[in-house]
Every structure is written in C-alpha cells, then in structure tokens.
Amino acid sequence: MLMILTVFLSNNEQILTEVPVTPETTCRDVVEFCKEPGEGSCHLAEVWRGNERPIPFDHMMYEHLQKWGPRREEVKFFLRHEDSPTENSEQGGRQTQEQRTQRNVTNVPGEKRTENGVSE
C-alpha cells in the first residue's frame, strides 16, 4: 500500500515535492525526505481551512491521511524551516522549562502570585 503526499516547501505553493507514504512512514520520515541535506530544524505542518497545526514527529502519516477521508483534498502540507512549536528532535515533545513554569503559575486578583504552590 502506497500513498503520495504532496508537501509544499515554501509558502507560495510553487515549490513542492511528492513523498511516498507507506503504513510505516512517520512524520519524521517525511521531514527528512523533504529537507535539504545538512539543513537544520524543520517540521511538517498541515493547513486546513486557514488553520495550521504542526504534526508530531512520531505521527504515522499513512493512517493520518486516511483519517481525513474525502476531505484529504482540502488539506495542504507544508515543510516549515523552523523548530516545531510543540516539539523538537532532541526533546521529542517534552515541555520546555518555560512551558512548565507558565502552566504552574497562578495569578489570583488581590492575592500574591504563587508558583508551584509557593507564594512570591
């Protein structure tokens, strides 16, 4: 079983590549296929109806494409030449210290700010 995934390599949709996708193909495989040798961090993003979403590196692309069903023609995939906003290749999706800190900070009007349950 083989599908062909069209990936746009720039925002203007004029430069593209076609990637063969099998049931074993991950998003990381697609990114590696599309980026230039020696190029730094990149990620794959899907755009549907004006909404862009980064795809996790460990995502199985064949299954992902099948889930779109008949709407698959409405979805465009772009190689973004920057780190994924949700993960990078070294961290594999783990949160950064800044993200953990932001989640654990509580601001309550009229009270002292607390971080991880400790008042400042």
TrEMBL record:
Residues 80-120 are annotated as: Disordered. Keywords: ANK repeat, Nucleus, Repeat. Residues 110-120 have a biased composition (Basic and acidic residues). SUPFAM superfamilies: Ubiquitin-like (SSF54236). One of its GO terms (cellular component) is nucleus. One of its GO terms (biological process) is regulation of apoptotic process. Pfam families: ASPP2-like_RA. It is found in: Nucleus. The keyword Nucleus applies. One of its GO terms (molecular function) is p53 binding. This is Protein phosphatase 1 regulatory subunit 13B. The lineage of its organism: Eukaryota, Metazoa, Chordata, Craniata, Vertebrata.
